[in-house]
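# step 3/5: fold
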Amino acid sequence: MVCATHAAQDPFGGFTPIIFLVFFLCFIASYVMMAQLHRALRKRHPAIYDSLGQPTLFWNNSPKNSFAVLGFILSGRFRETHDVEIIRFCRFIRAFNCAYLAFFVAVVTAFFVLSTR
């Protein structure tokens, strides 16, 4: 009886810890990539870094700075740097974030679909 109750509470059939781990690792990877991007922009493109509000992960991480960096990546303004490494890295960050969002939407959708059964 306990197993049936537990199974009803976990619509992913025991895969919840793995899904949580994937989300956690993606979260950590995202922070590491953003730290690398901030550092590269600060060192190699200080004017762009200043225009984004001199973002950092913790000390100068305001919503304004975060949206500026997000806009920089999503709009493709990173191409203005003409820096092949930054362009490649920003494209990877954009693809990674899109995949992360798609995975999140898929998990939330699956949760609602499977929990109604």
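# step 4/5: annotate
The two ends are 18 Å apart (CA to CA).
# step 5/5: archive (pending)
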